[in-house]
Backbone:
């Protein structure tokens, strides 16, 4: 097997005196969708932020597409083709849909082996998310939660990422949007984009993921294929169901 | 005043508004994107006036004047970019207020650099070639240059709007104003963006300065005057709103013009001299606007900045080592008169330092644990000082009574001002406190019959048995130590926990039943009261008090002391005040360019200890502890 797209070794992260992540290791292969499962507060978002370089204090080694990205600036990491879609979406509310997309724009890129990555344009994305196509000039602040969720994914895609850190895309949006998100993830996977997906909902993760890591108290408690996790009621009861 | 004269003043106001707008717009853009309150923005404006003067007089003619304005704007933009790259970029991860400290140090350095290059005299530039005439408007002569200025303001406003809406740089600026971390996570190099914004802001300041040379001489006092005005404009208009800045600039310039135009007016036997109000007019406008619209005319509630700095560590009560160190320090201070028997000046300096310590500690009380960044702590210092001095002057009160009245008056003032201030947060709170301090200052300055105006109150000497220097030193030491310990007691009482809870998470604090505003209001009042003691002591130590000792620079001194020591520790303000007071004293006596030297030292300290002197040491020690733990 070739080197993974993203490999995280012994990641630790803290907020001030409070350590959130301990010795966390995971990897995501090329074209793979990997679920990072766990309850609220397990450390899913912190893991993603630490990978993206957004945690002031973190330790460990992170490699992405052949580059060591530990301790690098978020913008440098993004420019290597790592996309980040935050859970709270962080849409620029003063900017219109098209302007939001423009902020995410980066030039087309290639994988380190020279294969070109999928290229996204405003037209393609507005076609992928028809709701956005109907409101190109609406300010982000006046969109529904589901519309914002689509926009944040579309904005990340404008950077033509090789891998996306997708933080809880199904949280707090209508069932219709959840379905759309699942389809989008499969669509991206087909196009060759890898995804690390954070999720609490086993059913959603099962629809789209190949493998899963289960997180609790900032540590990986279990990992295996998604099918194994879906069948393992004990693990689900211990770490996932509320 | 006739209606025509009224309109004429209004036109005058419009031409003054353009200059104000340029500086304020730049300040607002820089703050929006970088969250840096650039105190040196007035200095950039000032450099603009001097550079434009030099080009206009050296080159001469229309090329020198108009070409000089363009060239000046570009040069000042370069200076702004250099400041961002060489200085501010290194401290973006430091607490926000530290960046403020750094820009204040720049003010000092730039002022002295200007003094060194252009000398102390005011420099009057040439008239604008092609616009030297005047036309008759409403029966009076209005210079054509003023008419030109009236149109330049809206034109630049329009250009800025276009740039923000239509260019990628503009869009990035708007996005970063809202969430700069997310912009970074989308692959945008913030450093480039910040440099660009700084250059643009500096360009506007330089342009504003350059355009003024045909109206007013270039002078060294410009920097602080302009920054004060620009703050007011930005806050009244709403942080980050360019249109708001123009609107506010017009309103303030108009109010000032009207005050001058109205002059002395008789209201049925009651005379009001409106032209005296110009000093406070803008601050009255600001206070009124902030009370009615807490985020300015066109501003919106500030989005909490996602801080890149580490969250604040909880305060720890003094360890045995700290207590012993404190005790030793106290013993040394008690023995100081004996140690320094042969140099009476040491005691004078000692009194100054102790007063500074009390002043800074009371400010730190609301800034650190309270999270309220007051830019106007001089108000309570002034109320205390004048309260004591006026009692002595008008009622020949004994010193004990006057000193007891000082904190009471300051407390009452702080209760009044604090009630409004705690309703705001962040920069808006800072600006409102500044406005209140300016109002106190202006009242003292203008109310000559009561306060002696600019001459101040003289002959405020300590009475027996404190009339000797040594005795007064002991009194100061006792009061300062008591004040510091009292504030410390508050912080480790439930009241102090409530203060910090309210600072860290107002919503959660409210949810567990704390009245956060009330707690912060009381804290504000307590800090004001203690600060009043420092003011009262100051009046007696100097034997006099004058408006200039309670001006903006005292408030800034307080900020610098607190930040220098480190805002997150309780010993910080004590160390910061001592270091600053001694440094200032030493340098004022040793060189003409003491401001530049002081600024340079502050810059070095900021770069070396981004969490303050004490914070830096604490970090060093804790790092050593963890490494020794790891080793064992």
Residues:
């Amino acid at each position: 097997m070739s080197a993974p797209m993203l490999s995280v070794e012994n990641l630790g992260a803290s907020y001030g005196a409070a350590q959130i992540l301990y010795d966390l290791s995971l990897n995501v292969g090329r074209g793979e969708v990997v679920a990072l499962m766990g309850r609220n507060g397990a450390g899913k978002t912190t893991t993603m932020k630490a990978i993206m370089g957004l945690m002031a204090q973190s330790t460990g080694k992170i490699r992405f597409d052949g580059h060591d990205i530990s301790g690098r600036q978020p913008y440098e990491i993004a420019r290597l083709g790592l996309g980040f879609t935050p859970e709270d979406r962080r849409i620029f509310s003063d900017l219109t849909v098209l302007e939001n997309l423009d902020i995410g724009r980066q030039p087309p890129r290639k994988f380190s082996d020279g294969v070109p990555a999928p290229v996204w344009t405003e037209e393609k994305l507005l076609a992928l998310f028809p709701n956005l196509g109907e409101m190109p000039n609406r300010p982000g602040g006046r969109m529904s939660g589901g519309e914002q969720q689509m926009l944040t994914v579309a904005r990340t895609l404008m950077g033509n990422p090789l891998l996306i850190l997708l933080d809880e895309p199904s949280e707090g949006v209508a069932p219709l949007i959840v379905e759309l998100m699942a389809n989008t993830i499969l669509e991206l996977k087909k196009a060759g984009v890898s995804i690390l997906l954070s999720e609490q909902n086993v059913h959603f993760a099962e629809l789209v993921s190949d493998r899963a890591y289960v997180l609790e108290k900032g540590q990986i408690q279990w990992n295996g294929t998604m099918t194994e996790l879906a069948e393992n009621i004990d693990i689900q009861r211990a770490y996932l169901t509320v | 005043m006739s209606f025509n004269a009224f309109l004429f003043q209004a036109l005058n106001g419009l031409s003054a508004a353009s200059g104000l707008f340029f500086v304020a717009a730049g300040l607002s853009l820089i703050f929006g994107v970088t969250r840096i309150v650039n105190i040196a923005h007035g200095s950039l404006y000032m450099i603009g006036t001097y550079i434009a003067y030099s080009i206009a007089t050296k080159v001469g003619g229309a090329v020198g004047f108009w070409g000089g304005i363009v060239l000046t704007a570009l040069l000042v933009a370069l200076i702004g970019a250099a400041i961002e790259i060489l200085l501010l970029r290194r401290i973006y991860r430091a607490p926000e207020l530290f960046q403020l400290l750094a820009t204040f140090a720049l003010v000092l350095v730039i002022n002295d650099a200007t003094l060194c290059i252009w000398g102390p005299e005011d420099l009057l530039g040439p008239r604008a070639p092609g616009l030297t005439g005047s036309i008759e408007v409403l029966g009076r002569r209005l210079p054509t240059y003023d008419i030109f200025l009236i149109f330049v303001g809206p034109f630049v406003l329009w250009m800025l709007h276009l740039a923000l809406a239509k260019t990628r740089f503009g869009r990035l600026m708007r996005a970063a104003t809202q969430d700069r971390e997310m912009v970074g996570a989308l692959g945008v190099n913030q450093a480039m963006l910040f440099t660009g914004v700084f250059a643009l802001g500096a360009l506007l300041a330089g342009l504003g300065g350059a355009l003024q040379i045909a109206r007013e001489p270039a002078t060294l006092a410009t920097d602080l005057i302009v920054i004060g005005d620009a703050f007011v404009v930005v806050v009244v208009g709403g942080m980050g709103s360019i249109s708001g800045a123009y609107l506010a600039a017009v309103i303030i310039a108009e109010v000032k013009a009207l005050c001058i135009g109205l002059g002395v007016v008789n209201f049925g036997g009651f005379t009001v001299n409106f032209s005296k109000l110009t000093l406070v007019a803008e601050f009255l406008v600001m206070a009124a606007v902030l009370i009615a619209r807490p985020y300015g005319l066109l501003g919106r509630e500030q989005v909490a900045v996602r801080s890149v700095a580490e969250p604040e560590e909880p305060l720890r009560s003094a360890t045995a080592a700290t207590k012993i160190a404190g005790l030793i320090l106290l013993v040394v201070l008690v023995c100081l008169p004996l140690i320094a028997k042969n140099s009476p000046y040491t005691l004078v300096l000692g009194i100054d330092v102790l007063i500074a310590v009390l002043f800074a500690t009371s400010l730190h009380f609301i800034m650190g644990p309270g999270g309220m960044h007051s830019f106007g702590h001089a108000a309570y210092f002034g109320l205390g000082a004048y309260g004591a001095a006026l009692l002595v002057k008008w009622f020949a009160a004994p010193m004990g009574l006057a000193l007891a009245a000082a904190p009471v008056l300051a407390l009452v003032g702080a209760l009044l001002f604090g009630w409004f201030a705690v309703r705001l947060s962040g920069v808006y709170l800072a600006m409102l406190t500044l406005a209140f301090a300016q109002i106190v200052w202006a009242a003292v300055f203008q109310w000559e019959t009561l306060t002696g105006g600019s001459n101040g109150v003289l002959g405020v000497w300590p009475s027996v048995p404190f009339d000797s220097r040594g005795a007064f030193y002991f009194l100061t030491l006792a009061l300062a130590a008591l004040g510091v310990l009292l504030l410390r007691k508050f912080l480790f009482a439930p009241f102090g926990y409530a203060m910090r809870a309210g600072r860290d998470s107002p919503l959660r604090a409210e949810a567990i039943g704390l009245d956060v505003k009330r707690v912060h209001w009381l804290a504000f009042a307590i800090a004001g009261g203690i600060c009043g003691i420092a003011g009262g002591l100051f009046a007696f130590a100097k034997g006099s008090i004058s408006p200039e000792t309670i001006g903006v620079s005292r408030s800034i001194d307080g900020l610098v002391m607190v930040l220098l020591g480190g805002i997150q520790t309780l010993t910080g303000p004590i160390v910061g005040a001592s270091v600053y007071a001694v440094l200032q004293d030493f340098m004022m006596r040793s060189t003409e360019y003491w401001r530049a030297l002081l600024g340079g030292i502050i810059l070095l300290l900021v770069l070396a200890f981004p969490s303050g002197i004490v914070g830096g040491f604490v970090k060093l020690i804790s790092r050593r502890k963890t490494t020794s733990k790891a080793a064992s």
